[in-house]
Design goal:
67% of the residues lie in helices and 0% in strands. It is built from 3 helices and no strands. The longest helix has 17 residues.
Length: 52
């Protein structure tokens, strides 16, 4: 079940137009930068997947 759901989500993401990806990324960035805990943090750890 989990594998099927993940496959469907990845397929949907791969079909997303570049403009939509850019718009959604911008919204995420704006939200993140508005968080007080983020702005006050000395270190930020992230995970980046290189598959897509």
């Amino acid at each position: 079940m989990k594998h099927i759901l993940k496959s469907k989500i990845l397929e949907r993401r791969n079909l997303m137009p570049a403009a939509e990806i850019k718009e959604k990324s911008s919204k995420i960035k704006k939200k993140l930068y508005s968080l007080l805990k983020f702005r006050k943090s000395k270190n930020i750890m992230t995970y980046v997947s290189f598959n897509n």
